[in-house]
Amino acid sequence: MSFSEELIQEQNKKFEGANPQEIITWAIENAKNPVVTTNFRPYEVNILHAVTQVKSDIPVVWCDTGYNTPNTYRHAEELIERLGLQIDLYVPKQTTAHRDVVMGIPQIDDPRHAIFTEQVKLEPFRRAMEAHQPDVWFTNLRKGQTALRDSLDVLSLSKDGVLKVSPFYHYSDAELDAYLAEFDLPNEHKYFDPTKVLENRECGLHT
Fold it and tell me: Locate the Phosphoadenosine phosphosulphate reductase domain: which residues (predicted)?
């Protein structure tokens, strides 16, 4: 199915007030090759649970920077087993130990920060998307996270023409917590993103 801007705007109006299952079901029914991406940060369990309830065998692309906390890795293993996630893992081409010696984690104002972000996040993500060639990409973008994300909606097109579907786009933290409680799902808050430094900084995958 071709996802035109006109169709996306039309569907976004229809999806005002819709629950995540309705949105996900519509997207799965119209997708040829859907994927969901995750980094197992806080509230990622919501999107992983919701999508796999509709399509249990959907490929789950995990781009692991190599800098996750022990809590995050334990949380990931718990969700992989509990939800039966079909994980396809992508990691940087250089090990964390090697990078720690030659670069470390550059500060935001360090010219090497762009190189660091490319190595640990952007290149593995591009590699994953090139391998999967999805037409529909489920993600947990939410309004209020960054200025860029405030300009999007439940449905949006990536720069490569992939339909991004964010079923929880209009959800608050409290609403996400209620979803977790309803389905007795664990969350994880000790997450570390070495590329963002500031909580409200865009990660680079959605620009």
Answer: 35-186
